[in-house]
Amino acid sequence: MLARHIQYFLAVAQHHSFTRAAAALHVSQPALSQQVRQLEESLGAQLFDRSGRTTRLTDAGEVYLRYAKRASQELQEARRAIHDVSDLSRGSLRVAVTPTFTSYLVGPLVEAFHSRYPNITLNLREIAQEHMEELLLADELDVGIAFDEPHAQDIDTYPLLVETLALVVGSQHPLAHARAIGLQALNDESMILLSAEFATREQIERYCRQHGIRPQVRMEANAIGAVIEVVRRTTLSTLLPANIVLAHDDLTAIALDPLRLQRTAVLMQRRGVYQAAAAQAFLALAKEVAAQLERS
Questions:
Q1: CA 235, CA 176: separation in Å to the nearest integer?
Q2: pTM: predicted TM-score of the whole model, two decimal places
């Protein structure tokens, strides 16, 4: 089978050795060598240089490697397509989200999805948007939830919700009962913010520069949970999605007035990817849950 030839070729290319590739594939080395030679004969080209201690790709092998990787990815998709069950009585789904969504969107979305489709195995990851796109293109993810920023050419996006950031304070804060705050008043706030590796921090700093705001950043943290805990236990404030307070009775979201800090959340998939039934159901449900959150 062509699929086996490609699998064996990729293994040798990865391990630079017929012996190590055979061990990884749990086949005998003669069987592996025979399959690769059959592939070379069918192509009319030598794919590996076997003359040295390390097996190396020839120029023809380097060219073939690019297409073999793509073919292997397509074959994996085909296998999932064949085994996909349209009634969602079984299946699996690989989803990634950027960090802020784990604090208010992931909970209700996973609850709703598992309630409707309890036999679907869900693999959920929290990762940065740039890495998420790489995994989508490599067919290591089915769906991503991130922000509507410049994307790779082969990534499709679908609007999910408009996220509004607000001044988030704890019950001990002097503004705990306020509904809105003027932008210049932020200059008087002592804050804890997410650290620079978060897209949220970059968006906050851009917003502050645009409006001449210089908040007093007293602390930084590289985890949203840590930011929330500090805000709950001190009089420091922060800038986070307003919906975060839905899960915390002792937090208040104070609207920024008159110019809100907003960004659009999107669902992401690799362009042209096979739409498994589980992925279709997840996309539809994500839009449904997001609509409910926007109304709340």
A1: 10
A2: 0.69
